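Retry 2 of 3 after timeout on previous attempt. Resubmitting structure tokens to design endpoint.
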């Protein structure tokens, strides 16, 4: 069977993992606009889905931390091996290794927490003056029928994105957490490249720089729907030794602070 592309793949199909023995699952892949390698957000979302399969449904994910080890290929499925590190009274911890024939492509740790009735405080939000997704001031950077993305450049030059999945998702909170994990890798790389002295606002900057995600973390603060718009307020924190760090906060259009993200990216000028 041919590998689906980002124009034809269904996100729910990507999250539908096939059991292959105890705590082991296999997931399908897709071709993305750049071709030749997998989207890191897909592997993170699938690894999180595999971890969720081993945790009580009443204990949602609150954070994940992952390292991208080598590029994945869309030409073969991905195998996810889950290790149950601990199940405590309030928290559960899982480790997931994603593998293809070349070896490990991702190592992910995820922590899950039983809900607690404690203080709920939000700092920040979506600025009133921010262009909304349908505003002509935004530019379309969507991926076919999979992901809708609208870029916003603020007056100070910062780059942020409105992002949502173009998918008919069920009401399952676990699916939406995985969807947010998927989207979280679609925001950080451009703000990091924009810091480079030779970026110069080029729209084709991918052709000038070699880049890759190195490690990625998401903290899930509150439930949200991944098929609704999220504002990813991204901040590049500097470049050094061919690496750039980007942090971001994800808010729903109504201002709910859904998640915080940190990613370090590889950034080399092509010579």
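Retry 2 succeeded. Sequence:
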């Amino acid at each position: 069977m041919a590998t689906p592309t980002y124009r034809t793949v269904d996100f729910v199909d990507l999250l539908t993992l096939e059991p292959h023995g105890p705590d082991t699952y296999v997931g399908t892949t897709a071709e993305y606009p750049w071709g030749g390698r997998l989207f890191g957000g897909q592997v993170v979302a699938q690894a999180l889905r595999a971890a969720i399969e081993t945790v009580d449904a009443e204990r949602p994910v609150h954070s994940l931390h992952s390292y991208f080890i080598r590029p994945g290929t869309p030409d073969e499925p991905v195998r996810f091996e889950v290790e149950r590190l601990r199940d405590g009274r309030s928290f559960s911890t899982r480790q997931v290794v994603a593998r293809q024939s070349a070896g490990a492509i991702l190592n992910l740790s995820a922590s899950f927490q039983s809900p607690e009735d404690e203080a709920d405080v939000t700092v920040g939000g979506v600025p009133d003056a921010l262009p909304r997704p349908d505003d002509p001031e935004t530019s379309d950077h969507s991926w076919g029928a999979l992901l809708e993305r609208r870029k916003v450049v603020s007056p100070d030059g910062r780059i942020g994105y409105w992002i949502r999945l173009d998918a008919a998702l069920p009401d399952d909170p676990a699916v939406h957490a995985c969807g947010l994990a998927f989207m979280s890798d679609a925001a950080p790389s451009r703000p990091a490249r924009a810091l480079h002295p030779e970026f110069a606002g080029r729209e084709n900057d991918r052709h000038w720089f070699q880049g890759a995600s190195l490690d990625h973390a998401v903290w899930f603060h509150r439930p949200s729907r991944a098929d609704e718009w999220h504002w990813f307020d991204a901040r590049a924190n500097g470049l050094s030794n061919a690496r750039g760090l980007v942090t971001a906060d994800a808010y729903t259009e109504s201002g709910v602070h859904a998640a915080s993200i940190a990613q370090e990216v590889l950034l080399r000028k092509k010579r």
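Attempt log closed. The first helix runs from residue 11 to 15.
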